[in-house]
Amino acid sequence: PVLRMLSWSRPPQPGRHVAGRAAIPRRRARDSGRILNCSRRRETHKLGGHEVDRGPAARGSGRQQQRCEGTEPVKMTERRRREARLVGGLVLGSACSFFLGGAECSGMAACHGRLEPHKEQRGVIYSPTWPINYPPSMNCSWYIQGDYGDLITISFQNFDLENSHKCTVDWLMIGPAPKREEYRMCGSSIPQPFISTRDHAWIFFHSDGSSSGRSRGFRLSYIRGKLAQSSCKSDEFLCGNGKCIMRAWKCNKMDECGDNSDEHGCHVPPTMPPTSLCPARTFHCLVEDDPRCLPMEVQCDGSLDCDKGTDEENCPDTSCGKRLDNFYGSFASPDYFRSEQDRAELNCMWVVDTEDSRHIVLQLSLQLGYNDEVRVYDGGRGGIRLLQTLSFRNNRHTVTIESSRGQITVSYHTDLGSLGHGFNATYQVKGYCLPQEHPCGHDGGCFADSERCDGWWHCPNGKDEQNCAACQKDEYPCGGTSGMCYPLGDRCNNQKNCPDGSDEKNCFSCQPGNFHCGTKICIFEQWRCDGQEDCQDGSDEQNCLVVVPRKVITAALIGSLICGLLLVIALGCAFKLYSLRTREYRYRNWSSFEPCCWV
Predict the structure, then answer these.
(1) Residue 179 burial (C-beta neighbours within 10 Å; 0-12, 13-18, 19+)
(2) Which stretch of DSSP H or E encloses residue 37?
(3) Distance of alpha carbon 180 from its chain centroid, rounded?
(4) CA–CA distance, 577 with 571 (Å, rounded to integer)
(5) What is the 3-state secondary structure (H, E, C) of 161-207?
(6) For residue 138, which phi and psi values (nearest 5 degrees)?
(7) Distances 516 to 511, 527, 550, 591 between C-alpha atoms, Å
(8) Distance CA 201, CA 136 (A)
(9) Which end of the chain has fewer CB atoms < 10 Å from its terminal CB, N or C?
(10) Rounded distance, CA 546 to CA 448, Å?
(11) Which is nearest to 506 in space by CA: 450, 567, 458, 554?
(12) How far apart are CA 274 and CA 15, in angstroms?
């Protein structure tokens, strides 16, 4: 047991994943739990190979007696159980609190081998390490328990899992359902709401060991309650069937009510048709005031297909290579708007030379084929240095690259018959604002009107998020539709305060006691140079003079505590033995005394 306890390491906090901290399963001490659970009847409910504690009053066929794994049941008195709990709590609790300040020292996480129970009336569940990309080789599970007769409604706000054929790599599964496969999902499309047919629901998340680690994961919210309600809370909406859902779900183009009453009376402006209605490689526009989905091939082709010619606005230059000398501009590969049949081999090169010493910020939106390649070089034709090579694996998100001077070069290669559509790129001199943008101030940077009060800091000083109507003075809005705000002191402190974690995103600096990662997130300062990478880029373990793994430090502390405890027990036994020997010696001396008689 002592050796197993020495291998204990800090478990992640249940229901809460700190930004930048991957919840990687580790070995932990189980011996104290074995002793406490042996020969003790508990009510459990089995779901997908996991056990959920339903308490002594649970009903159903899932009852079974929990036994220790690999040990025989041990008979323990209630007094010894209390002593074991006290000793185990002191040893493990002291070690965890000493290193982490109690930040992550409670319970067992959803990604650590057991279902994480949720019994709240409503709540939010995130994928591990949200909002940054989730790591590979993860298996997480959650369990939502309602009262008798409750219906549980689950709605997704964000969903981004690596796509694969039949979702065999990364996937999310929700149940119970007649066919589990119906709710096994992956990709980047927001899934339809899930409404349970029972008073409980389970959620399983899996990321394969071969996962690329380029997907953000998911964020969902849930609410439970009964049908035929006469009224709801002020921040809830009463459905036609008497079910209460969150008011933020109304008119979101998703049927959370089950009877579609939450989407009745919703008017979408004709100039803003929902993007989810059009398939891939199409775009929205109005044709004679009627919303249409037109193929990408008619966009920027020189003919006006949409009302007011919106399909020909802001079109990038699609020539195969060019020299660009403006402070800002855009360009695209020749096949970006090309049809599927018109496929030719391309080798193009663009050189951006602003004749200015300031850096150039380049943003690329990629739709590359399997063998297509984009290379970005620092400098012009005279002397260039490779900055980054991009492939189809970078298609999911916009790529931002910054040069070290006023010149940058982009080369593009595609094979004959490629299924990709190249790239679309925009560039501008760093610190130079476009006509439709606003300057951030002395810190540099720009922001557009659409980026104002959106919950994402585009300016290092947060100017684009200041004085927003939804927040009080000196507060900043969270992203999404939560309507929550937070003070400056709660930003970038490695403590998620917003439901979407926007207060921990795009951090230009960190609060005292935190370390700033190269990926613009913050972690605890004590995680720096501890032998374990907590930043995605591993910057917390770079330039370390001496690296002492946290596992070694934790094991040393627990070992010293156990040795101290054994020393106290040994001293107690020694004093007890001394007391018994002293009492026995006195008794023998008294027994050997023979009374004398005097006449």
Answers:
(1) exposed
(2) helix 31-37
(3) 24
(4) 10
(5) ECCCHHHCCCEEEEECCCCHHHHEECECCCCCCEECCCCEEEEEEEE
(6) -120, 145
(7) 9, 11, 19, 78
(8) 25
(9) C
(10) 46
(11) 458
(12) 33
Q: Are strands 138-145 and 116-118 parallel, antiparallel or unpaired?
A: parallel
348's tokens? 């193009």
Q: How does strand 171-175 pair with strand 50-53?
A: unpaired
* Chain CA centroid to CA 349, Å: 38
**Contact 20/534 with Cβ under 8 angstroms?**
yes
Distance of alpha carbon 318 from alpha carbon 328, whole angstroms: 16
Query: Do 20 and 494 contact (CB within 8 A), yes or no?
Result: yes
Cα angle 257, 260, 263; round to 5: 105
Beta carbons within 10 angstroms of residue 424's beta carbon = 19
Residue in this structure with the two tokens 């991009």, named with its chain if needed: 390
Instruction: Say how many C-beta atoms besides its own lie within 10 A of residue 127's C-beta.
Output: 28
Q: What whole-number distance in Å separates Cα of residue 264 and Cα of residue 543?
A: 59
251 Cβ neighbours under 8 A, 6+ residues apart: 262, 263, 266
Quickly count helices (H) and strands (E) in the chain: 4, 30
In the chain, what is the straight-line distance between the N-terminal and C-terminal CA atoms, in Å? 70
In this structure, the number of other CB atoms found within 10 A of the CB of residue 453 comes to 15
- Give the Cα separation of 302 and 404 in Å (integer): 36
Q: Please indicate, yes or no, whether the overall pTM of this predicted structure exceeds 0.85.
A: no
Q: Mention every residue, 6+ apart, whose C-beta is less than 8 A from residue 190.
A: 156, 158, 159, 254, 276
3-state helix, strand, coil split of the chain in percent (to 5) is 20, 25, 55
Q: Two tokens at 519?
A: 């990926």
Amino acid at 83: E
- Pairing assessment for the beta strands 200-207 and 194-195 based on DSSP bridges: unpaired
Residue with tokens 């380049």: 362
Rg of the chain (C-alpha set)? 31
45, 58 Cβ separation under 8 angstroms: yes
The amino acid at 228 = A
